[in-house]
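Problem 12. The chain below contains 323 residues. Write out its predicted structure in token notation.
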Amino acid sequence: MGCEIDELKRAEKTRPDIIYGCEELGRLKSVMMHTPGEELSLLNESNYKYWLYDKVPEISGYIKEHRSYQELLESSGVRIYELEDYVDENIDLITKMPNLTFLHDTAAISRKGAILSRMRPPAREKEEIVVKEALNNLGIPILSEFNGGQGFFEGCLLLSKETVFVADTERHTYPFIKEFISNVLKDFSEVIYVRVPKARRYMHPDTVFNRIREDLSLAYLPAFKESCLFTGDSIEKIDFKAFMHEKRMEIISVSDSEQRRLACSFVPLESGTIFHYDTALDHKTRKNLENEGIEIISFHPDALLAGGGSLRCHTLRLCRRKN
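Solution.
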């Protein structure tokens, strides 16, 4: 009888018919999250910088705020899959990974499968292995991953069924970016490549650019040192703002201070509605968004700020749909 129950539980975990893919900026249907737990106890005053935190977190407050954010998502109709429920083989690794709560950095989910990262800092080593197991058990195939070589690749943005955005950050190595572009162009028509300064404040693509609506985005353009468009048979330098304008996407520029507060790193619930820290945007930017009819669902962080991430960092989006 016990074996039968175990099999039933395993069957419930594995959902090969799960709907996935986030290329379109439709309604957010489902996400995967990892509620932080005992792994946070690894941090102390002597090692929190090694673990990439801004300070030692107040653990009970950190977990409480994370759960409050989950409740906010669920109240908006978003289904949450808890990472730990879909991990068996690598379950022991979770207690050694205080950064695993930042699931967004580990993968991007397309309709053809997951694009896995190769995490760079030693503090985040092997996170993608845990995430890969969870995605496989959810029934989401792996479209792209890095199996060999020396290098790193922490994330990209899916802008449409045709377009991928890649920022060359401190968490990427260019040989891996070239490998990624070569592979991903088998499934997408074009890749926008942007070179940004190698600094912590620009560690991931969404620290400099993010879509709010299909025709509107936030960006910190001073970080865009070079922009190129890769297609199947060509590479050309582009002016990013002008290129996006041609694609009918306007950009609202954020200030230096806002960028440092992760102004571009938010979670769209649907086109024109976003979840965001209430500390991230200046009044001027909020007014500009209000004039555009944008709704901001605000969340106030206290304990979560110790991790140095945004709401988006905690949210691996699995599925968006326009209907």
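Discussion. The chain has eight helices and 17 strands. Students who got a different answer should revisit the alignment rule from Section 12.3.
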